[in-house]
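Help!! Second protein's tokens look totally different from the first
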Amino acid sequence: MIVFQNIRWKNFLSTGNQYTEINLDKDSTTLIVGTNGAGKSTVLDALTFSLFNKPFRKISKGQLINTVNEKDCRVEVEFTIAETEWKVVRAIKPNLFEIHRNGICMDQFASANDQQKWLEQNVIKMNYKSFTQIVILGSSNFVPFMQLSATNRREVIEDLLDIKIFSSMNNLLKDRIRGIKEEVRTLDLKKESLNDKVKMQTEFIEQIEKRGNDDIKDKKKKSRELGDEICILMLKNEHSNDQVYGLTKEQEKVTGATEKLRKLGTIKGTLSNKVATITKKHKFFEENTVCPTCKQEIEELIRLNNIGDAQDKIKELQSGYQELEEAIKKEEEREHHFVKLSKEVTSLTHGISKNNTLIAGCQRQQQDLESEIQTITEQLANRNTEHEKLESFKENLEETYKKLSTQKDTISYHDFSYSLLKDGGVKSKIIKKYLPLINQQVNRYLQMMDFYINFTLDEEFNETVQSPIHDNFSYASFSEGEKMRIDLALLFTWREVARYKNSVNTNLLVMDEVFDSSLDGYGTEEFLKIIRFVVKDANVFVISHKTGMDDRFDSVLRYEKIKGFSRLAS
């Protein structure tokens, strides 16, 4: 059982820098009164904020800080479970979240979200929704059980009956199934891959054994043919080299013809100039007896000597010129022959180069063939290794098939367990077991509040309401006062059920404005009787702005607002 003992807060909502503290387990019934806005409902927000990091009313977290002091907002709640003392501290500016066990602050290395999850699941055993159905009945901001969605109704009942563990187990099982299915998909892929490897390896071995020797024989034949071709080309090159050698020797004989032609051309030019000069002199003395310059008569003997001398020299030069022409003609023939020999040498050299390229290509092909022959030879020599590899693939494949079979069996087993843990499985049977008790208690409390209807919840937590006047009603069909009676009856029932399930049983019950709106005078009287005489092991706090009921409660807490700050009146 959770026994809430004390709660205190400061700089929270309209509360100032001095702690407001309320003892939660002192009196059986406590009335909290005050005018509107005095801060009497602050205890609801302080309680839910300390335990669940969110206020009861629709207020943002930033609005919880007192607007005057604007810092050091702090709430502390103390409670015991069995022999263990707990204290939860939560603050804003600076932010703080601490869980104390027997006076020792617990590990702060975990994230705030993880701490909160641990607090709800392992300590108070309730989430926010369940807490507000078992511990608190609020005003207009509160969502009663009957106005919750089907999913949220189920969460509350599962918390009450301690069967939420089945949902947790179901989620874990779902994750496990998802993980196994992922492993099965991986194994399926591995199986397909191994099947392909076995097939390829088998074909590879067959290919080696069937075609290996034939391939070697064929490649050796091709290599020999290439060798023959290389020999032929090398013989051709040898013959061409001999020809090139002979032509080169012959070229040596006519080497220098071009240079001689140049020199002879020069000599020819010189002779031509001399012939022209002597011819001009001969013509001068032939045609002139008087000097054209000085007008003196030229002696006949001198003129005749010059004419004779010129004629002799012309004959001599013409004879040499003819010999020169013959020499030039001879050198031109030699030069032509040299060019012809050069072309033949070039052609032969090109042929040799081409043959060398072909020889290199053939040699590369021979090398490739030799490499292939070596590879095939090694494969043939190592085919036992390939057989071992094939056997390894087969063994791995067989092992994969076994794992697949095992995992598929596991999935079938988990699927069966999953079906048991689903809402329609074990949980449904447990809920079905408790439904008669739940319905019985709800109607018992309704009758105590003078509301004679037959209210029942089915396994999906949908209500059926029968009255003496109408066969079928629904929660929404009733007045606000009648709805309040149903909400109270359910609250008391949930607490009754919680008494049988110690993990969510608690001493605290806080109700806000139950007198102030919907309950009439008679309903109020019956309600007071219930909280005083029927509700067991409880410390009940009723928040109201009604007056005149102080004597109906063990104690009264009065809230007042002074200079904008809420406080308990002394």
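Here's the second one for comparison:
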Amino acid sequence: MKKISILFAISFLLFSCEKNKAPSFFNTYDESTALEKQENHLNPRMKFKLFQSKVLDMNEVFKPFNQELASNFSEEEYNNLKPLILEQDIPSLQESVKEGKLSYEKLTLFYLYRIRKFESDSTKSLNAIIALNPNVLDEARKRDAERTNKNETSQKVYGMPIFLKDNINTKGMPTTAGALALADNKNTEDAFIVKRLKEEGALILGKANLSEWAYYFCTGCPLGYSAVGGQTLNPYGRAEFETGGSSAASGALVAANYAVAAVGTETAGSITSPSSQNSVVGLKPTVGLLSRTGIVPISSTLDTPGPMTKSVMDSWIFINAMYGFDKQDSKSYDYVDKNYGSFKDDLKGKRFGIIKSYLQDSVFNANINIIKENGAEIVEITPPQVGLPGFLTLLNIDMKHDLPQYLKNHTDKNVKVSSVQDVINYNLQDSILRAPYGQQLFDGIVADTTTVAQLQEIKKTLMANARNYFEALDKENLDAILSINNYHSAYSAVAEYPNITVPMGYKKSGEPISLTFIVKPKEESRLLILGNAFEQLTKHRKLPENYK
């Protein structure tokens, strides 16, 4: 009888444990066939060595939300809310909240449900998420309870769930830059821009995957790969089109409507590239408009965060939410142009410079014709043939000096690396896991012996050459120079010229392509007005077919 009782007790305990066991939505799958297929890809960077992260357990990431999703949200409710949320801009979402059709809690639950729905499907997962904020639902309910006429305005980030690129310090979540060397960077203070977003009432939903170390790590490796997050994929063609980088998942998840928006970072093309590749709006502001304090650096000379959104209006709202003078950032400046002007502006009478050879691109050509038909003047320009000598040297020496400062002042005490060399040594202990594509750029940083004095001369030359390249802005009295995707990102970076990229359609293959506006420093208002006018005129952006 005693034996029977013991057996019963054991059985009961096993049953209880099984009953209380967290549900498993995310399962590893055999990716060998898919990887074999990638070997035939024409783009060498698309010949992946792996898709799935070898260290991230998404079941653990979602564990804080499974019960809430099971009890407070259903597939029926998800489908009913789709028309109110998918592809809607912030003013529309805020209006739905105001009218009682939506709450910030339901908006957050919708995104959590949607992310789990697609990311747990091995045929649709984008490997876009590194971490989720375990407190985000409580914070959403608090936003609902505290909503007043003051914060109810349609042009506010209040209550809006957003993602941050995982090189932006965020209290309560790890900040890894995609690198296993920073896996223990779990307890940091908020970056300056994160404090600003929280002050404005934004909901930090989670951290987005990225090209490891913001793509200044390996050469010829896939865009959107990190040892922590795995291989980010493009929702318009998962293993067909590149994601762009380094803010790869920020672009992919906004495109797939996993959140209202995301904040990326750019040194030279890391916002405009993934925004273009994922058919979203990406704004690279003038360096100093938005603080870099608490962000894993490449270059204190060129780095800047910026919004990645589904509309120009949303980018305007996010810039307003994030700006602020930061005495810790040597390039921070007081924001003067607080009125971006009227978004009712159009393109009549505007003068745009284009490089004639770009008209060979059929999508670009078609959009230029639309711009002309709507009253703008197109001026063909021939930029001077100037190079960017020493560009990589600038990045090398800046990162050699800037990364140790971040590691010293802005990381968890449990982080054991303090320099680029430390990271190299750490990765060499298990290169297959930690650096499967190599770390050639890190090796180059250590090997670069350029002095500070030499670097200053390089900076002067780079800026002079780049501004000379864009001389037509002044000579031809242009409102902006028009480019494709991130074709001129390096030139605009060292010139310190801001730019915005706006969807301009899709290639015959279905791959997104975008129109990029380039202007002179501190002219973000001009960018936003022009970008919005073009966007409203064309409305090219479409939700990816498999994510409807």
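Reply: Different proteins will give different token patterns, so don't panic. The chain has 21 helices and 13 strands.
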